[in-house]
Amino acid sequence: MCGIVGAIGLASPRKYVEKGLKMLDYRGYDSAGVGYYAHGIKIYKDVGSVAHLFDEVAPKLIKTNIIIGHTRWATHGAPSKINTHPHISFHKKICLVHNGVIENFKELKAELEAKGYEFYGQTDTEVVGNLLEEQLQQTGDVFAAIRKVMGTIKGSYAISFFTSDDENSLYVMKKASPLVIGLGKGFNLVASDASPMIDHTNEFIELSDEEYGVITKDEVKIFDGNGKPVNKQPIHKDIELISHDLKGYPHYMLKEIEEIPQVVNRLMNTYYSDGKYLFDKKLIKDLKESDHIIFIACGTSYHAALVGGRYFEYYGKSTSKSIASEWAFHPTFPGKKPFIIMISQSGETADLIHCLDIIKKNKLKNLVITNAGGSSLDRNCQYSLLLYSGIEVSVASTKAYVAQCTLLAMLAAAIKKDKSCMTDMRQSLKVVEEIQSTYKPIIEKVANKIKNKKNVFFLGRSFDYFLSLEASLKLKEISYIHSEAVPGGELKHGPIALIEEGIPVIVFVTDTVTAASMRGNIEEVKSRGADVYVISTKKLSQPGDAIVVTDYRFYLSSIAISSIAFYLAYFVSLAKGLNVDKPRNLAKSVTVE
Ligand code: AGP
Description:
Blueprint: E1 3-8, H1 13-24, E2 31-37, E3 41-47, H2 50-57, E4 66-72, E5 87-88, E6 94-102, H3 105-114, H4 125-139, H5 142-152, E7 155-163, E8 166-175, E9 180-183, E10 188-191, E11 203-206, E12 211-215, E13 220-223, E14 229-230, E15 235-236, H6 239-242, H7 252-258, H8 260-271, E16 272-273, E17 276-277, H9 281-289, E18 292-297, H10 299-314, E19 319-323, H11 324-327, E20 338-344, H12 350-361, E21 365-370, H13 376-380, E22 383-386, H14 399-415, H15 420-450, E23 455-460, H16 463-479, E24 482-487, E25 504-509, H17 512-526, E26 531-537, E27 547-549, H18 557-560, H19 562-575
Parallel strand pairs: 18-19, 18-20, 20-21, 21-22, 23-24, 23-25, 25-26, 26-27
Antiparallel strand pairs: 1-4, 1-10, 2-3, 2-4, 5-6, 6-7, 7-8, 8-12, 9-10, 9-11, 11-15, 12-13, 13-14, 16-17
The protein binds 2-deoxy-2-amino glucitol-6-phosphate.
């Protein structure tokens, strides 16, 4: 779960690596480092941010033909200076950066130690450097060394490295972690995703699993695991969708919340036109024919799965929804013709990739809904539907969640050719716009009231409960306040014991069928001293509600009013002076299990 950049032949290598690592620090930000060739291998690294590395540690001027950089989210070995990448091999022949996890590193380390290799840190990466060095010394052939090492190591890796006696060759190897090559004129680039490279090129090559290669300033050569050359066709990427520009916003999270209307509109225009849904006909046929749909996802995407599953149920499909890391260990396939829908903003979540292996072994039909074209899941699932939401940088997912719910609503409706969903969606967009233009000051006031609280509760039923789960995750993720989402009806079955004087309870009341019961819940918590903030729709509102929005169709809560939850988490985090976009202990792309 780390970010990699690399360049060869670039005129301003320091600038590229600094800017690139800053763009990739959504993948991890506990330490950062840079390695390059200038009369031998030079490495500068430290614990802390990319800004710290370039402001205080690395030289102000880096003149080199070859450079690699890394921003880390520690898996093996604490976030310390010695464990920070790049790593250098024992005899100082190899300088490398790695994203992923080498599962058998302990055995391999022991074997190398028995041969006299010494290790300075605790990472799995150092083992790969030493294995490459050992093989290189034995064979004198870098490609043979790479092939041997790829056959030895188990796990996931995107690796970029260079050797101490060749400043004109940048090597890459990849399995189950992303690595993209950017094609330039007189230079070439490498990165974990395309975004760091867009100032220099919009032509890219995406490495597939078990491919490796060598990059010089004028050439890129890729090989498959057997050493056969692979002819990779370059792809063009839409600059707008991969741009990291803050566009004047103070934080990515705020920018991304405010992009929600644009994101929903783009999806509606992409997958619907002239009264018709534009999904792949074979996909719709497979969905129609399946007798059970299994939704699999993690975190926020799982919350979208809960919403999406309910949509499909409304159209008569039987569904189940599972957290990927649970399903992976006890997979079940109800029905005779199960169909799997995986949901993942990043398309790289390791728990889901584990599930995909099982899905493939069992030859099950499958679809991924992802924001990341070219990601592991996008490439390896049978069907893929892209969210076209533009890159989501803030660790807290906002616009991608709304996009997932939007796309799921459209896909479910497409099965029955139900056009009313599009009318309802347009109405819910008006609510999003109303919240963004009118209710931010009220939400900020609520945020200031809860910022010093230790616990917060969110209550809702049905779709409002699914939204409560997401609101609660968002709040705890970036404000570090403990929060819980409770279905209104479950309150009396335990959680009400925690309701006491002054505890904030945020309640969503937007569903005619459940409104009366929710009002009952509100009385129950109020009478125990809770500070209650009700979010309701006009038709269901009562005096004293904190926010009353224009009516919308109840099943679109996750689209219409999730902005309220996102702003609330944002303003609390801001009021507490926390790092909104990069909360502690988390990373945007969870590429380790
Ligand atoms: C969302 O705010 C979280 N950062 C997290 O729960 C995230 O949704 C989860 O890790 C799943 O990621 P994915 O959608 O990229 O698979």
